[in-house]
Amino acid sequence: MVLAAVAVAQFAVALDLSVVNVALPAMRTALGFAPLDLSWVVHAYALTLGGFLLLGGRASDLYGRRRLFALGLAVFGLFSLAGGLAQAPWQLIAARAGQGLGAAAATPATLALLTTTFTEGPQRVRALGVWSGVNAVGGAVGVLAGGLLTEYAGWRWVMLINLPIVAVALALVAAGAPADARPARRERLDVLGAVLATGGAGLLVLGVVRTDAQGWGSAATWAMLVAATALLAAFAYAESRAPAPLLRLGLLRSRWVAGANVLVFFSTAGQFAAFYFVSLYLQQVLGMGAAATGAAFLPFCASLVAGSLVATRVTAARTPRAALVPGALLAAAGLAWFAFISPDGGFLTDVLGPCVITGVGVGLVIAPIVAAATTGVAAREAGMASGLMNSSRQLGGCIGLAALATLAAHRTGTATDPAALNDGYALGLAVAAALFLIAAVVAIGVLPRRRTGTPAPRPAAPAQNRLEGTPS
User: Do the Cβ atoms of 425 and 408 come closer than 8 Å?
Assistant: First the structure.
């Protein structure tokens, strides 16, 4: 019941990362968006999700995984309803920001629920494989669902479709998830760390996603990126001094945790960018409609599920590294094949083959990456590790997509003909392949060959120090 609830909820969260993309033109027409404001329908969700993930992860450790899971889902569903009923651009943007806030509370709690419900070993690997599979399939199905709903039901159903999904997840968690145990001692939430982490991550995401309008060389972009760097550096210093930190820096001493977070950053950067470029290639170069573009991602979904199933078996029998290395290499090969797209090509000649290869490779990566990022992590820090991994995923996706989109636009220039657009998309796909190669190098060079390298445990404080709140 816990696994079903978590899978359904994570599917909805992942779906909303991509479901609105195909519906953007219809939203612009219906609500009267200005051209530069339309992108905020996507950015508002990414900004609040990326900015609050660490806070959501730690809050689930302190206040209860089930409680944060249910609260996050309720907020997500409420703002989905608000978005479906929006009558003005600002209302839809505010609703998308609210969805991101709810997802930032629910997503780390989903992983924390799994890691505390299932013991470390094959059982947990299978559960995390299901979570990873629905997470990736949700993003891919979002493109299909967005196209079909926009074309046949209307753009509002892109938001309203979340309501029955959230209702099912809440019913499952109420029926099957155990009540949160009362902690032996209630630690205070690290308010300073929360402010610094949320501000730093939020400014980083904001600075990157606004490069579509301001460019990477603008003073505004650099000001936001420098401010984000300063806040994140201050966050690292504050966490080294905090008695109950939002992110215990000792967690990163584990090669599993550190390596998995670097790997997920680069692989998600390549994956998000690939979704973006292939979708644009199908519509703007091959001339396919919204529904047909969504349907074209079905082979990717099927191969991704197949890769996830194989990865789950491999990881349960050996280690996450055994699936991550070949998976990253296979995804790199598929995207390199994608880079040979042609303006005179078609789905069967230019898309189907690389789609299957890339899907299997991505499936081999996403299924074991969560197991790697939580290997050896104590139950009391499961939410912390989950929030960190999801933050790395979200930041990687935002930064990778923005950087590669800028690179492709620079190659295309001011031309709008299919041949010029094709050249830009091909370059972006080639760089996405290189990002997966970097992920493979990280998996080979950083991840241990055996299930060792667990994070150094936090030493127990003497009674007097615990009462005074000072580190031992």
Answer: yes
